[in-house]
Amino acid sequence: MLSTRNDVKRYFDRVPLRWDSLYSRDHSVRHFFNRIFRRAMFERFELTFAHCGEISGTSVLDVGCGTGQYSMEFVRRGAARVVGIDFSSSMIDFCRSAAVQRGISDRCEFICDDFESHPFQDDFDIVIAIGFFDYVDGPAAILRKVASLTKRRFLASFPSNGFFWRFHRSIRYGWIKGCPVHEYSADMLDSLYKSAGFPFHRSIRLTRGIFMVAGQDG
Description:
Elements: H1 2-14, H2 16-21, H3 28-37, H4 39-51, E1 59-63, H5 69-76, E2 81-86, H6 89-101, E3 108-112, E4 124-129, H7 139-149, E5 150-158, H8 162-176, H9 186-196, E6 200-206, E7 209-215
Parallel strand pairs: 1-2, 1-4, 2-3, 4-5
Antiparallel strand pairs: 5-7, 6-7
Helix pairs in contact: 3-4, 7-9
């Protein structure tokens, strides 16, 4: 498991600019094709903000924050405090620089650490983990920790790609890029969420994958 995490970390340390550009509108043609061929990525962005409830004045934890797209959008929409955590130092450096450039560093904190072992001092109104569980080997302990930190709502995405995309991602990420990926079924997620202790959870199908809404209220 440790070697798998190191493989994932090495991959993400190499790609912050490339990863952030997936959301960019600076290049209209590239954005158009990303909206088509990476449709699930945009679906989960829209679902996150559709199902997180009231944002103004809240505290937010972004698990596996990457380049901080979600973290900074929560600030833009009125969150009082956003904490992003990622074990890639390159991603965290990118986030910190972007927050300073946007003038929001007073409301954003970015931590370079492993979520599972990090000693959080507070819990959060909203917790998200978008594109995080694709690369997690052993999600049960992480979900239990998330449940202990979530005051109101937890939003997460999980890959569930079928045979073709499973084969494609195994080659593209596992073999070529040295970054193994994992898949989940609806039944598996139902069991994991119940074991984690969430009072409620429900699933929403994505173009490729599953979006989960869970928390302390229905």
